[in-house]
Amino acid sequence: MKVLTFSGTTPAEALKKAKEAVGNDAMLIETRQLQKKSLGQSALYEIVIGLDEKTAVHQKAFKKPLQEQKPLAQESSDVLFNISEAAKQISKISEVTQESPGVKKIEEPQELKEIKKEIAKLGDKVKVIQNMFWDERRPDMQAIIPAEFSEIYRLASQSGMAKEHLDEIMAMTLEHMPLKMRENSQTVKRYFQTLLRKMIPVRVEHKLRAGQKKVIMLVGPTGVGKTTSIAKLAARYSYLLDKKYKVGLVVLDTYRIGAVEQLMQYARMMKLGIETVVDPPEFTTALQSLHYCDYILIDTMGSSPYDKEKIETIYECLQGSESAYEIDVVLVMPSSIKYEDLKATHENFSSLGIDTMMFTKLDETRGFGNIFSLAYDIKVPISYFSVGQEVPEDLVVASSEFLIECLLEGFSRGRVR
Ligand SMILES: Nc1nc2c(ncn2[C@@H]2O[C@H](COP(=O)(O)OP(=O)(O)OP(=O)(O)O)[C@@H](O)[C@H]2O)c(=O)[nH]1
Ligand SMILES: [Mg+2]
């Protein structure tokens, strides 16, 4: 790479000189102020530009005109969420990004606006080059996306999102995104983020109506954090909300004494009623003996998704339950497994009638595109996230904002509100 410097009394002037000399394919490496403006002396800025002839050739490949993009896949109309509609709706966010009512906007000088625009454009070119290195195979979609989209495409690809979902969403974004939002990668990212948020089904936690009771059963593979999550939920409903509810626990684990003892300890600590169920006929009796509770939380034995016998036992309890309660079945899955495995796990538990999904161990994972793809694909809402081992604090009520922030920016404890 060839490094050149240009100077001017403003960064814009230096940039203009650079563009006149080397054209648009250069990369802005640095802007420096060499001399401050003072009485009788104008300011002096220097910009450092990198020029690589190979780069210029590659950039052209990314910047095919829009009309040359591939047509959308036929299946897009079958997608569970009508992305096209969502994309149109959120086109309105360009208005949101403008000034809020009542807030007086300070007009930036034209010169400053132009500098910012140029810098953003150059920044995007640098990102294209950076992003070219992450996947040398360069999938089809990546070859046709414009410079401003390359960073978001890379972030989403690396998140573990199913490739067909990403390509489809990207194509929709390219089709529906208002031109004025395409200016730079920041506005593209904001648009994309809002679009993804609209695609995540989430179950909002409601206050119980007077006299209403709620029975929640956690099911899922072994060791995913069902019992720990039951303890967190029990603490939440009985102590942490504005209204304190009466909570009862049921252990449906006919296999391990340890499993019963684990929840017993939590029940003792929180002074909660607890019932154990050894075989399906006892299930209704257990629910009846906790009739005084507002919330009944049922912990089940972990079953390998392929262990039909254990899933069958849970099924028998659900079917045989003669109580008047409706049981909300929550499938608990770790966020560390890939989308295909999450999907297979859901399929194996689907005979139980899964109402919502809970994802655990978000603190042990980097990509969250697998969760996005599953929820987007099977349209089952997410109710909670578990973000650590601590009871009760490491529980997050699901929100699409939280998931999409984790997906694009990574999980951080600071995000847990
Ligand atoms: N890092 C992390 N660990 C977790 C999380 N949730 C649970 N764990 C840990 O995972 C381990 C298993 O948790 P359990 O709650 O016993 O899992 P389970 O699904 O009830 O397991 P089985 O009953 O054996 O099927 C424990 O060491 C928990 O502390 C989480 O969100 N993050
Ligand atoms: Mg358990």
Keywords:
417 residues; alpha/beta; Rossmann fold; 8-stranded mixed beta sheet; 3-stranded antiparallel beta sheet; 16 helices; 11 strands; binds guanosine-5'-triphosphate; binds magnesium ion
Written overview of the protein:
The protein is of the alpha/beta class and 417 residues long. It folds into 3 domains: 1-51; 60-95 and 114-199, no CATH class; 214-415, 3-Layer(aba) Sandwich (Rossmann fold). It has 16 helices and 11 strands. An 8-stranded mixed β-sheet has the order 6-5-7-4-8-9-10-11, with helices on both faces. It has a 3-stranded antiparallel β-sheet with strand order 1-3-2. The longest helix has 23 residues, at 110-132. It is elongated and about 90 Å long. Mean pLDDT is 79; it is low at 55-84, 90-103 and 133-138. Residues 222-228, 259, 302, 360-361, 363-364, 386-389, 394 line the site of guanosine-5'-triphosphate (GTP).
